[in-house]
Amino acid sequence: MSSDMNQPVPRPGILDIAAYVPGKEHAPGVAKVFKLSSNETPLGPSPKAIEAFKAAADNLEIYPDGQALKLREAIASAHGLNPANIICGNGSDELLGLLCHVYLGAGDEAIITEHGFLVYKIQIMGAGATPVTVKEKDCQVDVDAILAAVTDKTKMVFIANPGNPTGTYVPGADIRRLVAGLPKHVMLVLDAAYAEYVRRNDFEAGIEIVSENRNVVMTRTFSKIHGLAALRVGWMYGPSAVLDALNRIRGPFNMNAPAIAAGEAAILDRAFADKAVQFNLEWLEKLTVAFEGLGLKVTPSVTNFLLIHFPDQDGKRAPEADEFLTSRGFILRAVKGYGFANALRMSVGTPEANEGVIAALTEFMGKA
Ligand SMILES: *Cc1c(COP(=O)(O)O)cnc(C)c1O
Q1: What are phi and psi of 96, to 5 degrees?
Q2: Phi then psi for 160, rounded to 5 degrees?
Q3: Could you tell me which residues are beta bridge partners of residue 110?
Q4: SS3 307
Q5: Hey, which residues does 308 pair with through a beta bridge?
Q6: How many CA atoms lie within 13 A of 210 on its CB side?
Q7: What CA–CA distance (Å, rounded) separates 133 from 247?
Q8: Where N6-(pyridoxal phosphate)lysine occurs, residue numbers (predicted)?
Q9: Which ligand 1 atom lies nearest to the CA of residue 39?
Q10: Measured between alpha carbons, how far is residue 246 from residues 81, 101, 184, 210, 228 in Å?
Q11: Nearest one of 38, 60, 98, 101 to 259, comparing CA atoms
């Protein structure tokens, strides 16, 4: 190994990290573009959140509340939690990073799953630890495979529930079986970014599971159902000892004032979020039926996006579909980096966008 003394050198492992590539935004040469690549809501945020954001513009010279107390209290009241067990972050991404930097170091292992969110791997490696990838079963997180992968080096397990980009979920009973099987010093991170969309009786976002254990945390986001992706608002519910550790290293003003204000207004506008869930459920069903009618396989989704699998046939594979859709202004997400070379992920969009994708894929599949 050559050591270069002429410039600063990152810690070992940092340059092995493949940087996160966000969903595409542009379709060159197309007048009207529908961005369906990042699971953003087509309905925007609550008007009350926009109002609160604008009002915050009057006090931009003042530092924000470093404890984000009003936001934590609003989250606590919406979910029936103790605000002392809530920490807010600049997106849940920041919290995932803090968890890794607090609990992982060189020589440690953290378990992720085959089609798991790429941010976990980046943060695990960023902390100098080793990601251990466990197979999924039919696009579904496999709790037994995770338990089988635990070694004496394992310090953390990351699960997105529901999963992205699969859109599937692990029932609460299986999460509880996982917790029961994990050593008590191994932390389970339940990333529940899409929990609000799920309407299944056997699903648990993780609140009770966190409350009952000292080694489980749940992260949530305002980027999806609440439509505040631009402001970067995430939160975590966890045991006091975990929050105490994270609060020692987080930036003292990690949440900006407009984000705190908008987040508070958004989570208190329950009627708006309920409407967004209804809209999503209707379109999830319509889109799934339409795509299956074209002969495409769709992984059953409980989220605001769909994983569409293309035929293994010349001219009909995912890269060709991606190109075809992009040329018509519909930007979906290629998910090769998540282990799906022949699939695209589509976020539920506006009715116009959704109808447009159905029409375009009808044309694409009908092509000789
Ligand atoms: C969108 C998403 C998030 C949210 O990240 P933020 O940093 O809060 O915007 C977290 N986890 C998964 C799996 C996601 O898809």
Answers
A1: -60, -40
A2: -90, 125
A3: 131, 156
A4: strand
A5: 298, 344
A6: 23
A7: 29
A8: 224
A9: 1
A10: 19, 9, 19, 16, 23
A11: 60
Give the residue, by CA position, lying nearest to ligand 1 atom 11.
Answer: 193
Q: Concatenated DSSP letters for 20-89?
A: P-PPP---TT-SS-EE-SS---TT-S-HHHHHHHHHGGGGTTSPP-TT-HHHHHHHHHHHT--GGGEEEE
Q: pLDDT of 322-360, one tens digit each?
A: 999 999 999 999 999 999 999 999 999 999 999 999 999
pTM of whole model > 0.90? yes
**Quick one: which atom of ligand 1 is closest to the CA of 117?**
13
The Cα 211–Cα 216 span in angstroms is: 8
Give the single-character DSSP code of 146: H
Dist CA 65 CA 184 (whole Å): 34
- pLDDT tens sequence for the chain (368 residues): 555 689 999 998 899 998 888 877 777 888 899 999 999 999 999 999 999 999 999 999 999 999 999 999 999 999 999 999 999 999 999 999 999 999 999 999 999 999 999 999 999 999 999 999 999 999 999 999 999 999 999 999 999 999 999 999 999 999 999 999 999 999 999 999 999 999 999 999 999 999 999 999 999 999 999 999 999 999 999 999 999 999 999 999 999 999 999 999 999 999 999 999 999 999 999 999 999 999 999 999 999 999 999 999 999 999 999 999 999 999 999 999 999 999 999 999 999 999 999 999 999 999 64
Distance, in Å, from the CA atom of 22 to the CA atom of 333, rounded to the nearest integer, reads: 9
Tell the residue number behind the tokens 């979020």, with chain if given. 273
Domains of the chain, earliest start first: 23-44+271-364 (3.90.1150.10), 48-268 (3.40.640.10)
Residue 224 CA: which ligand 1 atom is closest?
Answer: 1
Residues touching ligand 1 (Cβ under 6 Å) are: 39, 91-93, 117, 160, 164, 191, 193, 221, 223-224, 229, 234
